[in-house]
Amino acid sequence: MRTPLFNLDHTLDSGQVFRWRKEGEWWRGVVKDRYIQLRQDGDRLEVKGTSEDMIAHYFRFDDDLEEIYAEISRDECIASIIDRFRGLRLIRQDIWECSASYLLATYSNVPRIKKMIDSLCRTYGREIENGVFAFPTPQEILEGEADIACCRLGYRADWLRNYAGMVYSGEFDLYELATKDYQGAVEYLKRVKGIGSKVADCIALFSLDHLEACPVDVRIARAMREIYGVTGQYDKVAGFARRHFGRFAGYAQEYLYIAEDRTRKTIRSCPGNPDTHS
Questions:
Q1: 160 lies in a domain?
Q2: Which pTM value belongs to this model?
Q3: Which of 3, 103, 168, 264 meets the CB 3.0–4.6 Å disulfide criterion with 138?
């Protein structure tokens, strides 16, 4: 399939999702109950295991990246980062899988998160290919015979089982969540034990189409401090980012995140910092 402006490597290597791995020229991953293989050559994307429509929806090909770049390029630093990572897109994830995954991501790093999710899927998920497992449903987690301790989730195991129970019983309604505006979605998500402001923002951005959400982790906090002079509590830093970058602040956040991940050379070499803000 032909793609709009898109870089598969930047997109899948930006820490948004945890079930993709690159082997040679191919990215191999699982989305819900589909085992998918992708390879990019210029503006052509070779797809195995799913439909082109599904891929277009998943990688947000409906987003006009040039319009987004024009809106979030508020300073020379973010503009230079965009030039380096052009084609990185946000990924539109399944709400249940995204929210459960980011619940597990609390106080952990990407390699550890991937191991936890892989273990969870192997323990409770349905096998869809030889050795490849779907992400488990709330019911599969609750009714599985295996001891969740074998997944080595630590204290997050209780959070996950509690959340699965809330979703399965209807106490937490994913359909209702999907109808809420950004602030309403964040407030609703924070009813769940283990979901704080940062995790709620991740879920809002990556699965609920709230592109103004700006998750602030250690990397983003450092970038906001060093580039923009913004420090303080989570709400202050995230609030500044939403005001500064506007309705696509989540895209700006993802570009800052991947730049910070590349030995921080991009951040240190920004062509002059913009005016700082207290």
A1: yes
A2: 0.93
A3: 168
Neighbours of 82 (CB within 10 A): 20
> Strands 34-41 and 44-48, how do they pair?
antiparallel
Q: How many residues does the chain have?
A: 278
**CATH number of the domain that 130 lies in?**
1.10.340.30
Residue 227 covered by a domain: no
Show the domain range for 110.
95-207
Q: d(Cα 65, Cα 265) in Å, to the nearest integer?
A: 24
Task: List Cβ neighbours of 246 (8 Å cut-off, separation of 6 or more).
Answer: 71, 72, 74, 212
| Per-residue model confidence as pLDDT tens digits over 96-129 | 999 999 999 988 888 999 999 999 999 999 999 9
Which own/partner contact pairs does 267-273 have at CB distance under 8 Å and 24+ positions apart?
267/77, 267/222, 267/223, 267/226, 267/227, 270/76, 270/77, 270/80, 270/81, 270/227, 271/76, 271/77, 271/80, 272/76, 272/77, 273/75, 273/77, 273/226, 273/227, 273/228, 273/229
Task: Give CB contacts under 8 A, 24+ apart, made by 4-9.
Answer: 4/61, 4/65, 5/65, 5/66, 5/86, 5/87, 6/40, 6/43, 6/45, 6/59, 6/61, 6/87, 6/89, 7/40, 7/85, 7/86, 7/87, 7/88, 7/89, 8/38, 8/40, 8/45, 9/40
Please check whether residue 212 lies inside any domain of the structure.
Answer: no
**For residues 166 and 172, is the Cβ–Cβ distance under 8 A?**
yes
Q: What is the number of domains present in the chain? A: 1
pLDDT digits (tens, 9 = 90+) for 165-215: 999 999 999 999 999 999 999 999 999 999 999 999 999 999 999 999 999
